[in-house]
């Protein structure tokens, strides 16, 4: 549940000094501020983010808005190698807005790393696969690309929306049993598309279509 004091965050990739998905991040942020009746900060948020991006190497810019004030920080870009993923034991909670109330995701990530994995998928109390700790999930079913439905109250990810611009995607509700031998990948607006290399200790088959989508993911 979103609390009154929670901040809203947008985490954005800098590529060659540019923020190629900036306007999409700001649109989501404005929508969340309105939906949660939070005050918008003064000033030009786009200019603030661009100033933090600089003009050099690839970076990550984190924009946080809390109590009508905005702050930015930067960090290095994480690895984009295929990920080892497990399933979190704690159930997914509704997360339709990207707030700083991320306890369930932080605990799931810590659990995954304690098991020697890179990340975890969270499952709803009803048994439906939802999302990763900082990722949207996709998988191939024959000729069809699928992703968990937004009505599971997952985050409407900027990376998720970008993939859905590039390919026809079915939004579905599935249980964990549906993933046997599927080719899986994760996406977010920092690392782009990253294949899942192993899931629950088993190797995951790679699909050439994932690499093709990854090549087209970042707008010019």
In short:
The chain is built from 5 helices and 12 strands.
Task: Explain what the structure shows.
There is one protein chain. By secondary structure, the protein is of the alpha+beta class. It has 2 domains: 8-75, Aminotransferase class 4, branched-chain amino acid transferase, N-terminal domain (D-amino Acid Aminotransferase, Chain A, domain 1), CATH 3.30.470.10; 83-216, Alpha-Beta Barrel (D-amino Acid Aminotransferase, Chain A, domain 2). Helix content is 24%, strand content 30%. It has 5 helices and 12 strands. The chain has helices at residues 22-35, 45-53, 103-114, 158-166, 208-216; strands at 8-14, 59-66, 69-75, 83-87, 119-123, 129-132, 136-141, 144-148, 169-172, 183-188, 192-199, 202-203. Strands 4, 5, 6, 7, 8, 9, 10, 11 and 12 form a 9-stranded mixed beta sheet that branches. A 3-stranded antiparallel beta sheet has the order 1-2-3, covered by helices on one side. A hairpin with a 3-residue loop joins strand 10 and strand 11. It is globular, with a radius of gyration of 17 Å.
CATH superfamily of the largest domain: D-amino Acid Aminotransferase, subunit A, domain 2
What is the CATH topology descriptor of the largest domain? D-amino Acid Aminotransferase, Chain A, domain 2
- The percent of residues in helical segments reads 10-25%
Mean pLDDT, all residues: 94
Can you tell me the CATH architecture of the largest domain?
Alpha-Beta Barrel
Q: What is the class of the largest domain in the CATH system?
A: Alpha Beta
User: In percent terms, what proportion of residues is strand?
Assistant: 25-35%
The string of secondary-structure elements, in order, is EHHEEEHEEEEHEEEEH
Report the major sheet: 9 strands, mixed
How many separate structural domains? 2
Gap from first CA to last CA: 37 Å
Query: What's the shape?
Result: globular
Uncertain residue segments: none
Structural class of the secondary structure composition? alpha+beta
Query: How many helices in DSSP terms?
Result: 5
The radius of gyration is: 17 Å
How many β-strands, per DSSP? 12
């Amino acid at each position: 549940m979103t609390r009154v004091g929670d901040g809203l965050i947008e985490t954005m990739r800098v590529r060659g000094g540019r923020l190629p998905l900036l306007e999409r991040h700001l649109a989501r942020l404005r929508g969340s501020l309105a939906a949660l009746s939070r005050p918008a900060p003064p000033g030009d948020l786009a200019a603030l983010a661009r100033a933090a991006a600089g003009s050099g190497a690839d970076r990550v810019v984190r924009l946080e808005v809390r109590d009508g004030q905005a702050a930015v920080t930067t960090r290095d870009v994480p690895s984009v190698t295929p990920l080892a993923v497990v399933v979190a034991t704690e159930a997914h909670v509704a997360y339709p807005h990207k707030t700083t109330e991320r306890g369930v995701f932080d605990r799931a990530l810590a659990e995954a790393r304690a098991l020697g994995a890179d990340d975890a998928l969270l499952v709803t109390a009803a048994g439906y696969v939802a999302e990763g700790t900082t990722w949207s999930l996709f998988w191939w079913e024959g000729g069809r690309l699928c992703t968990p439905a937004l009505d599971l109250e997952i985050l409407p990810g900027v990376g998720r929306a970008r993939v859905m611009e590039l390919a026809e995607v079915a939004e579905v509700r599935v249980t964990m049993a549906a993933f046997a031998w599927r080719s899986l990948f994760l996406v977010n607006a920092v690392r782009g598309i990253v294949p899942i290399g192993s899931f629950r200790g088993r190797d995951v088959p790679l699909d050439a279509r994932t690499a093709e989508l990854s090549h087209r993911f970042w707008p010019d």
